[in-house]
Amino acid sequence: MSETWNQRTKLVHGGTRRSQYNEVSEAIFLTQGFVYDSAEQAEARFIETGPDEFIYARYGNPTVDMFEKRMAALEGAEDAFAAASGMAAVNGALTSLVKAGDHVVSAKALFGSCNYILADVLGRFGVEVTFIDGTDLEAWRAAVRPDTKAVFFESMSNPTLEVIDIAGVAEIARAAGATVVVDNVFSTPVFSRAIEQGADVVIYSATKHIDGQGRALGGVVLGTKEYIRGTLEPYMKHTGGSLSPFNAWVMLKGLETISLRVNAQAESALQIAGALDGHPALARMIYPGLPGHAQNALVQTQLGGKGGTVLSLDLKGGKAAAFKFLNALTIPVISNNLGDAKSIATHPATTTHQRLSDALKVELGITPGLVRFSVGLEDTDDLIADLTAALEAASV
Ligand SMILES: *Cc1c(COP(=O)(O)O)cnc(C)c1O
Q1: At what positions is N6-(pyridoxal phosphate)lysine found (predicted)?
Q2: Which domain CATH number covers 76?
Q3: Which terminus of the chain has a lower count of CB atoms within 10 Å, N or C?
Q4: Ligand 1 first shell, C-beta below 6 A
């Protein structure tokens, strides 16, 4: 593989390793273990595992290794560790890093399961977490302390699509010696330059755009070789959050087309947001790619002007209108994944973010009328017509 390759070449060829058969498509090594030629060789491999050597699929596997190398090449990271799901990645990235007595600062606008790890899990083990408004750099400056071990945020938050200034937060965190951990799902690995912008650790749920066709769970953590192999890998390989070889293969094939898919989805999302913005049934149309979005300037500098593949609609009629709207859709499906080829509509307040308290939902803008809409690969005009008809149905 060449360092000078551009993104789309890395997506197709990055990390590819062929077996003795010289197959074209990446091989699935669906094996949990590996045979040693001798007892001495087994002993030696447990002392030091060489680059082409494997022990057990929980520790590593050739197909999983290809996925990790392709992701590292794509993100411009030194190394990567593939996880069983996005949440295994978030949990491993944070839990392997902190210990009792440490302090963590986190943006408060988080996906429900991320909120569980920060608000419940870390606290139970004696880690103090301070939650702030992630879009406010002054709030980060005020919250970071000499004992702050890590900062955590979703670079584009789920589901209200706040965009957080990676370079700005990284500058503040680094001055305090804190590790910058970014959940980058909504930014997608195609639009992201998070490592270059100062993130130390970047996390993706591969379940979303990397698979992109709703088939398999997966996750990945990217960072320096020292962090990935020294800090994260021992935690992941002994606690069991490793990615299955079959799912790694699904993700490798997903990466081949991800650039085409998310660029088309983002283009469609911009057109849909523009067409529906100001519709009388809507209290708010949230899409970071729209010029009126509060962090649109950051979208230009941080994401190359791409507003992502998800938009959120806030219906004036609250939950009843949101449910009418969802039930009137004929092309998008009601579900809770995102980044899929199929457009997916979600009511966060009653599903993905149900576990948050009512007070926190209000604070985060997760209103009863809010619908998260993940734009798929269907024809844009068909989607606009269907969404418009559903808005009409929700208004009566
Ligand atoms: C979906 C999601 C996750 C979790 O990913 P899974 O693969 O479902 O475990 C984490 N963070 C964000 C922002 C997500 O959207």
Answers
A1: 208
A2: 3.40.640.10
A3: C
A4: 85-87, 90, 111, 113-114, 154, 158, 183, 185, 205, 207-208, 217, 219
